[in-house]
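Why should sequence recovery work at all? Because a backbone constrains its sequence more than one might expect. Tight turns favour small or flexible residues, buried strands favour hydrophobic ones, and helices have their own preferences. The token representation captures these environments compactly. In the example below, the structure is given first.
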């Protein structure tokens, strides 16, 4: 089966169009991304990328030269999911782990093998509608917090604050469905005198052939 996703993005006056073609070869997916830079003013390799993925197992991105491996173990009968990611270009390695305590509570950790930085997070879902996500970054010695509210079944409104950068964000998104979805984001840097908001719009159309 072949599926195509057309993504349009607008941020700070910059428009971008990305087309992703996915070929499902059994358990493995082949992804090819093409941007308008590939075809405008003659064909080129700019904006052209490929990846090979087996969901829940591994991903190889030939554009970023990124290798990602996923695994899952059980700790005290609780699922612990690991993701190991290595970027060959800048020789950087990150390990992510998520422990699902129950359907409403999750603990997460992000560790940079090269930098030694660690970020811990906690997620709590209240009645399946409201999600609280506080986190602490040891490298920046700062707290971040996000609160999400599900509305109209498949729409989510999210507000967030990053204490290290003093960026306040607001996001409205429609969860991807069989046909597509969208995301509208606005953010304000409270550390700047002007405090002008930054706006971005991301929409996707999904078609299966």
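From this structural description, the recovered sequence reads:
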């Amino acid at each position: 089966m072949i599926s195509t996703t057309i993504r349009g993005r607008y941020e700070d006056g910059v428009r971008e169009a990305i087309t992703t073609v996915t070929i499902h070869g059994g358990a493995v997916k082949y992804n090819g991304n093409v941007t308008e830079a590939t075809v405008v003013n003659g064909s080129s390799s700019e904006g052209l990328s490929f990846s090979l993925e087996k969901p829940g197992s591994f991903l190889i991105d030939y554009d970023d030269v990124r290798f990602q491996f996923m695994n899952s173990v059980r700790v005290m009968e609780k699922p612990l999911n690991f993701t190991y990611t290595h970027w060959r270009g800048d020789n950087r390695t990150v390990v992510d782990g998520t422990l699902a305590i129950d359907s409403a509570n999750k603990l997460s950790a992000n560790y940079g093998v090269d930098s030694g930085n660690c970020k811990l997070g906690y997620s709590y879902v209240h009645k399946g509608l409201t999600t609280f996500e506080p986190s602490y970054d040891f490298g920046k010695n700062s707290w971040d917090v996000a609160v999400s509210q599900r509305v109209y079944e498949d729409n989510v409104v999210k507000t967030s604050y990053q204490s290290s950068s003093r960026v306040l964000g607001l996001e409205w998104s429609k969860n991807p469905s069989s046909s597509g979805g969208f995301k509208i984001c606005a953010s304000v840097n409270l550390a700047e005198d002007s405090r002008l908001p930054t706006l971005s719009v991301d929409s996707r159309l999904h078609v299966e052939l």
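A few observations help interpret the result. The longest helix spans residues 36-39.
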